[in-house]
Amino acid sequence: MISRKYKFILFGGVFLLLILVALGINAQSENDHPIYDVYTEIVPTTNFFAQPDDERQVVSYESAQPLSQGYDLIKENEHFILYLDPLTIGIAIYDKEANYLWYSSYPKYREANYLDAVKTAIASGVIIECFESEDSDLPMVTKYSGSDADCQKTVVPTTKGCEVELKFVTVGISFKIAISLTESGLDVMMLNDTLEEKPYKTPAMKYPKQYKLKSIAFFPYFGSENYEINAYSFIPDGSGALIRYTDEVSQTALIKRIYGLDMGFQNRATIYDHITNQQEITLPVYGITHGYNQAAVFVEIKEGAGAAELHAYPYMYDNINLNRTFFRFLARDKFYLTLNAGETIGLIDDEIYPGPYHQQYTFLSGNKANYLGMAETYRQSLGLENQVEAGDIPLKLDFINQDYKPGLFGKNFLAMTTYEQVQAIIRELKEAEVKNMEATLIGWNKRGFYDNTPINPKPAANLGGKAKFKALTEYMKANDFDLYFYDNPLIVREKGLNTKIVKRVNLELFEYEFKSSIGLSGYHNHVERLATTILRNQKTYQKLGIDKFNFEYLGEACYSYTYKGEVIPRTEMIKQLQAEMEKLREYQIGLTRPNDYLLQYISSYYQTPYEASKYAFETDSVPFISYLLSGSVNLYSAPLNYISDQALFGLRLIEYNIYPSFILTYQPSYNFRHCNFEYIYTSEYALWKDIIVSVYQRVNSALSQVRGAKMVEHRCVEEGIVRITYDNGVQIYLNYGITPYQVSGRTINPKDFLVLGGGA
Asked: How confident is the model at residue 32 (pLDDT cuts 50, 70, 90)?
């Protein structure tokens, strides 16, 4: 039996709890922006941020030192001196402007306590891997140009440098490479048409072995050093990442295929998006710096990027006390053929990926010898120009117009945002001082997106019909707002007379899995049908006022395929894709995280990376992509519907010059139950309006000062404090710290920013 005393205590506790709950509910109801007030404790020393620079310099070796080490002087011009070791095909290059000598090997490897095999690998200018193709398991062997027993070398001078013939005698593989000195640095190229693969046989062997080239790496130890000097590697992982040379031991490394896996050969691993932060390499570049604003090299693949991998090895990876970064060109991919009995057999292509395999080294000095100088170099290489007009930034809104759920007698279509409702939302946001907008309509057409890919451009009656559609497009045009239309022109839902379905390299059907909660697949159409898919409806698009597209999947699509028995490697697919995009120049096109070869064709870049993958060996996230593209295209974030700390994320948008984005419906998102878009669990405009306006106005107050300008500096001036400078003279300071920061007599509170210069 509970005593009267304890009953009183229990009753009092319950009563107090009810009062606290009531007060909590009342407090929340008075909060205009409950999500905006979420606070995330952040540590600016993590690799989510850039770190303060180490300003130490590096002592360079003498310019003539290679001559005393067995190197030959190959070529000299106004800017550089090129040396080559004829025994290893290692090189050294002296940058006259930087007064710095670079080696393709670790300069101290001779006296280091390495095994002879490791020293051979470090000294070698060329390393190949090859398959023993007569064995169904396709075992692999590695050979080095620095091995006297395995490799015969012949060096022939040319007007620009030299041509080197390599004969790997123990595997029967030979080819030539061209090494050329340029005004900006160095060009290295494999001459693919010189490749020979002959059977190898010794007197002791009963049958010859046939080896096939698998991969080749040029100068994989170029610029390799460790924590003994002030240096870092830049890699294009996510937004961009730095790997500072420290003595922290790492047993993992970054090895990623440029443009992601070749899905014509390989299946993507089934993994949920929410438990991985893997980001594909969309730019075939990397860089290495030695010393603060002293000397740097920026390496770009000029040809053959579709066949390449990026390798970045931190300190002590593979038990070698060096940091090194390099490209490896994959001459062949391995694929599996399924036999009738269900067994699989490993196979490789007879022909190598078309070449040449060509990489370019650009040497940078002074205030260009950093990742920002690398971005500027790459910007010039891509021919990108400022095209964005000054003014208020655009807010990106993705409207889901309709979806369907399977029913007993077919598909039940569900109108989530009609044309009239889209117009009403846009008008309401305009009245709330959202001054510029770019909208995308998803499922705007008859039978929607998922049931009709590529789309049939007919306005849907259940969304308001042609009259309401035209009213929307005319309203957007009258207000100078951009309206894009969602499509996936590389994929068809069903086979038909107007389709050319392609197959994977192993002759399996090349299926495509839509991002759909009810499981939906389609087929890859021939790449050369891309432009036709759009242009066959050209007159209809003109009548409807459609001149802008948001293409799903196209930005990342890069694969080999088979059509009518002919294998088209991904290096050729890239060329086909570019040719198709040229035919669509009259349209403005937005793509999601597009590969570098598509950047010249876009007006909007979606889901812009705002951090690196944050692997343990990465020390900094940096805005390389933002620096590369600022002023050239509109950069938009991923939808902010799933961001809890809007204040922190708003700072990152300002830092990276990225514009906010939201995905919206007029109807509540619970209506997506059992539909394709069921995975979108918060999209109702009425719930998001206040946050949308708040985020936009905050970000616009900073970025409207620099819209159309080019980023020229990004620096962490001290822990938690970042400064960005633009070519119009505007500077933006951001405080990620926990204490106020003073600059120019003004105070920046934690999680806040300050704009200086320009009209601020």
From this structure: very low
Q: Residue 361 corresponds to which tokens in the numbers above?
A: 């080294």
Mean pLDDT along residues 296-314 = 97
Its domain, for residue 610, covers 395-708
Residues 6+ apart with CB under 8 A from 183: 77, 78, 79
Angle at 87 between CA 83 and CA 88, to 5 degrees: 75
pLDDT tens for each residue of 518-557: 989 999 999 999 999 999 999 999 999 999 999 999 999 9
- Contact between residue 749 and residue 721 where contact means Cβ atoms under 8 Å apart: no
Residue 607: inside a domain: yes
Give the residue carrying structure tokens 């997506």: 672
Tell me what pLDDT residue 342 has.
67
User: Would you say residue 22 has pLDDT above 50?
Assistant: no
Q: How far is CA 73 from CA 65, 66, 69, 101, 469, in A?
A: 11, 8, 11, 13, 70
Any idea what the CATH number is for the domain that residue 725 is in?
2.60.40
Rounded-to-integer distance, Cα 660 and Cα 441, Å: 17
Contact at 8 Å (CB) between 92 and 102? yes
Assign 702 to helix, strand or coil: helix
Q: Within a domain: residue 519?
A: yes
C-beta separation of 127 from 216 below 8 A: yes
Domain end residue (candidates: 337, 353, 382): 382
Same structural domain for residues 703 and 741?
no
How many residues are listed for the chain in this entry? Answer: 760
Is residue 724 in some structural domain?
yes
Angstrom distance (rounded) from CA 221 to CA 83 = 16
Q: Confirm if 295 and 274 have CB atoms less than 8 A apart.
A: no
**Residue entry with tokens 């390393």:** 127
- Do the Cβ atoms of 128 and 168 come closer than 8 Å? yes
CA-based nearest residue to 615, from 375, 372, 312, 318: 312
Torsion, CA 225, CA 226, CA 228, CA 229, rounded to 10 = 60
Tokens (6 digits) for 195: 């490749």
Domain boundary among 666, 693, 708: 708
Q: Which residue, among 375, 279, 359, 322, has the nearest Cα to 595 in the 3D structure?
A: 279
Nearest of 566, 558, 563 to residue 500 by alpha carbon:
563
CA 312 to chain centre: 16
124 falls within a domain: yes
Residue 314: what are its φ and ψ, rounded to 5°? -75, 180
Give me the sign of the Cα torsion angle 266, 269, 274, 277: negative
Does this model's pTM top 0.85?
yes
Question: Residue 470: exposed, middle, or buried by beta-carbon count in 10 A (0-12, 13-18, 19+)?
Answer: middle
Write out the two tokens for 376. Answer: 């500027």
Mean pLDDT of 219-223: 98
Angle 419-431/685-703 helices, nearest 10 degrees? 50
Phi, psi of 432 (to 5 degrees): -90, 20
Of 474, 421, 448, nearest to 685 by C-alpha is: 421
For 206, residues 6+ apart whose C-beta sits below 8 A from its C-beta are none
Residue 640 has pLDDT above 70, yes or no: yes
DSSP string for 254-317: EEEEBTS--TTT-PPP---GGG-----B-S-EEEEEETTTTEEEEEEEEE-GGGEEEEEE-TTG
In eight-state DSSP terms, residue 684 is B
Q: What is the CATH number of the domain that holds 431?
A: 3.20.20.80
Q: What is residue 665's DSSP assignment?
A: B
Contact of 289 with 372, CB cutoff 8 Å? no
- For the stretch 80-107, pLDDT in tens is 999 999 999 999 999 999 999 999 999 9
Q: Considering only 344-353, 508-517, 555-564, 590-599, which range has the smallest mean pLDDT? A: 344-353
Cα 656 to chain centroid, rounded = 15
